[in-house]
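Slack export, channel: ligand-projects

TW: morning all. Re-posting the request from yesterday since it got buried. We need the structure predicted with the small molecule present, not the apo form. The ligand is S-adenosylmethionine; the SMILES is in the block with the sequence. No rush, but it would help planning for next week.
GE: picking it up
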Amino acid sequence: MNYHSPVLLKESIDALAIKEDGVYVDVTFGGGGHSREILSRLGENGRLFGFDQDPDALENVIDDARFTLIPENFRYISRFLRFNGVKKVDGVLADLGVSSHQFDEGERGFSTRFDGDLDMRMNQKSKISAKEVIGSYSEEKLAEILFLYGELRNSRNIAKTIVEKRQEEKIETSFQLKEAYKNIYRMR
Ligand SMILES: C[S@@+](CC[C@H](N)C(=O)[O-])C[C@H]1O[C@@H](n2cnc3c(N)ncnc32)[C@H](O)[C@@H]1O
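GE: finished. pasting the full token output, ligand included:
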């Protein structure tokens, strides 16, 4: 199965203007498509560090002496680069968002196409899943999250609907959540 097809592959790596012996960081390693392209342009003294907080991405690790995969949130980038003896980098690539792998695995809870546990943790080591957020956060807090991170203009309406629905039954799967707001959004 294809883990993820990298977008704007050539354009984004061209923009990095790779120096053969440079040090680069791909902070969203995913399926490694962008990383492979960076490695193909590096010389033997170049270095590439990849970050991904999703343990599934580890399956795509690239067997190359110039490459190091760090299975962590890239918010810790300076700490981990320091740990690896890197003081300065020549370029950083961030292909932000979710990978198609995360959408295609129903049990991850990201997709409205498949029914699955409402998990939605990108890092499965993190403690809180979407199920707990949907089941326990106040209407105000839910509206704030949907507005800030989902950029949904009708966040208050959705939060109200979720809270009403969860009083009837626990919302624990992606299809239950989809059902809860079907009158607000027409979804496939
Ligand atoms: C769009 S995909 C990247 C795909 C990748 N460029 C490729 O060629 O396959 C985004 C990836 O970033 C990871 N990710 C998102 N936020 C992250 C974060 N804060 N720290 C580390 N990884 C993150 C996701 O787990 C996902 O695998």
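GE: first-pass observations. Residues 161 and 183 are 9 Å apart (CA to CA). The first strand starts at residue 23 and ends at 26.
TW: perfect, thank you
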